Amino acid sequence: MSDTPDGYPIREFSRLTGVNPVTLRAWERRYGIIRPLRTPKGHRFYNDDHVELVRNILYWLEQGYPIRQVKLLLQTPASSHQDDADDWHTQQDQILRACSRFSARGLDDLLQQGLASYPMAVYWERCLQPVLEHLRADSHSGPVLKSFEYLLKRKLNSLIALQQKHSEGRTLLMATNHSDAELQVLAITYALGAAGFRVEYFGSELQPEDIRILAPVVSVSWIWLHLHPAGAGESRAWHSIGNDGQIPVFLSGDSNGAPGELYVMPERTGAMITQFITTSGEPV
Fold first, then answer.
1. Residue 75 pLDDT > 80, yes or no?
2. At what angle do helices 88-100 and 142-164 cross, to 10 degrees?
3. Burial class of residue 233 in the structure, from the number of CB atoms within 10 Å of its CB (0-12 exposed, 13-18 middle, 19+ buried)
4. Counting beta carbons within 10 angstroms of the beta carbon of residue 267, is it exposed (0 to 12), middle (13 to 18) or buried (19 or more)?
5. Which stretches does DSSP call E strand in 164-283?
């Protein structure tokens, strides 16, 4: 008789739920919010009850509640909660203070904690994107904005590189037409890597013809174009990639004038990721 519990090892469970193993371990060790089964050798195993639990956790995170409160929320009825019960503004302020002091180490610590505690889509929408929008709207934040963008790109690129060492199966090619859209592309790339997809991204300087050359060489199964608003001629050139018809092409960001050959994504990052996973199927 096997001593291995029925269920999913952590990497398979991560693919199933879209929550990366680092976050799953943090939820267990730091917050005690999920308790996997263990083999005699200590390996984690998860079952269908854990799948449902993670769905509930993600629900509360998407409502704006911090992970430290979710354990209590899971035990009480939804009607007893208040809309202002989150601390996302506090986390945003902490990041802004670290940026204003040009504290690379302080910012890295905050990012490490946030990325370990939350799925990327939730952390991006509730914390990182608001910080980025705040800095971009402030005409006096030039050096602070540049340092934040640089340090966040550096962090996400390093995490994505680690993911790619262990990713297998079919490949998604991410592309964007503008450097201002690059951080969101990296957030999407990291989130999909956590869901088990192999994602390739080669920077914001590529042109549509470059994508056509890369796609067969990399043997991609899907192309995802995340477009910053552009002139009609530039948009048509990017949209034309979908006319090739051989590889499914997803489009997010500026979708004005998108032809019917493209899968147009919703606006929210989390909804984009969910739709891609649903439409493309499980990574293999």
1. no
2. 110
3. exposed
4. exposed
5. 171-176, 198-201, 220-227, 249-253, 263-264
Statement to judge: residues 176 and 113 lie in one domain: no
61 inside domain: yes
Q: What is the mean pLDDT of residues 80-91?
A: 63
Question: According to the model, what pLDDT value does residue 280 have?
Answer: 80
Q: Does residue 198 surpass a pLDDT of 80?
A: yes
The residue segments making up the domain with residue 133 are 88-161
Among 129, 161, 193, residue at a domain's last position: 161
Return d(Cα 18, Cα 217) in angstroms, integer: 28
Whether the pLDDT of residue 83 is over 70: the answer is no
Rounded to 5 degrees, what angle do the CA atoms 209, 212, 214 make? 110
pTM above 0.70, yes or no: yes
pLDDT average, residue stretch 44-57: 91
Total domains in the fold of the chain: 3
Nearest to 88, CA basis, from 29, 140, 131:
131
3-state percent breakdown (helix, strand, coil) of the chain, nearest 5: 55, 10, 30
Percent of the chain with pLDDT over 70: 93
Alpha-carbon distance of 53 to 247, in angstroms, equals 35
Strand arrangement of the beta sheet that strand 44-46 belongs to: 8-9, 44-46, 37-38
In a domain, 123, yes or no: yes
| Cα dist from 256 to 175, 176, 235, whole Å | 17, 15, 8
98-107 confidence digits (pLDDT tens): 999 999 999 9
Beta bridge partners of 227: 253
User: Element (H or E) spanning 164, and its range?
Assistant: helix 142-164
